[in-house]
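Record 1 of the preview.
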Amino acid sequence: MLLYHRVAPRETARYEIVPTVPLHLFREQLQAFGELGSIEPLEDLLDGPEGGDRPLRIALTFDDDYPTHEEHALPVLRDLGVPATFFLSGRALHGLGAYWWERLEALVAERGLEAVAELLDLTGVIEPRLGLHCEGDSRRLALIDRHAPPGDPPLDGEGIRALRRAGMTVGFHTVEHPVLPSLDDHALWSALVTGREELAALVGRSMGWFSYPHGKADDRTVTLTRAARYAAAWTTQPRLLRSGDDPHRIGRWEPQPLSTDEVVILLGRLLARPNR
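->
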């Protein structure tokens, strides 16, 4: 199973915690995957990952509330006839703006990396790891919230409806996007269920599938996710789906903004590697 986040028509030169896949690469990658195997609805792989007419079966997923889902990714999906599942937070339904890392990106664009690293007491940290040091750190997240500009608005309700009208599936991804294993039981349960019904009502279908924020889930998180009656849940571990796998620990592989040749090589290595 594949995971994408932002897809946009330009190759960005700005600092990014979540890399943007240029639109032309996204199209080329999907075309290559279609030549290597079949890109199918997620539910088809859940019903039987090792069946089908072709040996390589692929399902496409997206995380987070990016307006680029509707604006840029959806037209390519429709043009190529590719189904996808979008794990969304529904932040706009609760009056919330950009995620913390988008605001951190905006803060770096405004002040520069060195100044922001000093503000967050991260001077000397290698650039790509700046966000990792903020993830789950309440003090640094509070600093970002206090000092960062608002960032781009999230995907709105009409954008979410547009995904559904195009035949795409919507799953849940929590409203606030916390690191779930770091929460106590009460806060973890609240993250799993708060906002779920509002998103379900908007798209006209129950939220039976879940994507762990930051891709992280320990045994306690998985247990509560099952108790919340999610039929399946996804991490960001680059693992293949095989018959008998735990449906609440399904892995995904993120192609990143790489050339098609690089993506095909890495996919081949993943296919040759046994699951762990």
